[in-house]
Amino acid sequence: MSQLRKFQQEFHTALLDQNNVKNIEQLIDSNGISADKRINVYRNNFKFNLTEALRSTFPVIYALLGEQAFTIWSYRFIAEAPSTEGNLHNYGVKFPKFIQQQPEYSDLQLPYLVEIGEFEWAYHEVFHETEIQPIKIENLASVNPSQYNEIVFEIHPASRLLKSNFPLIKIWRLGNGLDSDEVDLDAGGVSVLIARRELTLEFQQLSNEDYNFLRLTADGHTLGAIVDTIGSENPDFNLQECLQRQFQRNNFSGFYIET
Hints:
three-stranded antiparallel sheet
């Protein structure tokens, strides 16, 4: 192992654990200032930057927990799951589940906290997702009608599908200061597609049928299989109307024929 590589590894170890600086001390010229004090400057900046990244991604969790609790839990998360890449857009996917594992979680009486965190992560991913042009219904003109049942639609990549027993959209709006009305947790849940089309980010509130259609589509099922599954639960399912809604909302980015 090269000396540089060894230094990088020891520095990374000391950065994450202030009680583990013995090896790095041998590689740093203290010049009157201990290695730990020198590293502590980087350590504090490291924690601050990752905490700010989490705060930016999870503003509603921050609002619900308050600054002190959010910072404490962020520091715990950083110690357990530090960033391993320079792009902080990818950091924090496990944060909602991590919160649920904290000993204080049951005392919060916020049963929707994990799900609103997953909602915020989905929003974050959609916001940063690659933009591509959706397909139009006219693109199906090239398909032989005998192959309709074998069509597999591809959900637009700037989309995330969620379902919850809690009114997550209302909680999200309240947490971001967009609404002031108190949220009634007993008002019912939501099925939603978080979508960005060009520069517009929207919440598509879905019927059970549309949610099931998009869920099965995202799982790679053919059109025929989807119709059979949904039709077995609801004989009145109207495929044509459902497809028209998806095309109007630009929810497909492509399709292929399963052979």
